[in-house]
């Protein structure tokens, strides 16, 4: 009787462990990326990288996000500095995100932020949340 109970428990544990592994494999079937940058001009090589990864990954290319932060965050409100990157980013499947802490710290008028740019309150927390979802991350 003990052998039967122990065997049953062992089989149940093995089944549940395998199901958990399969769920993780399915969840991470796409390659997702996040880049933190402090300078708008760095969007040029970042977008080129996203395009190359999209071509390389094919159907496995998922989401690509760029988080802008730091003292030059105000550049995202200047059309001559950010405009050309917004169009290129959209075509490449890149989402541009602005850090709310930086916007507040450097007194950037949030009304002047282009509608294509998402604002998150805390870039560090947001980056960690994306990493927990399996995003590959790099900071420039």
UniProtKB/TrEMBL annotation:
Signal peptide location in the record?
1-23
State the UniProt keywords alphabetically.
Signal
Q: Which InterPro entries match?
A: DsrEFH-like (IPR027396)
Q: Which domain of life is it from?
A: Bacteria
Stated name of the protein: Sulfur reduction protein DsrE
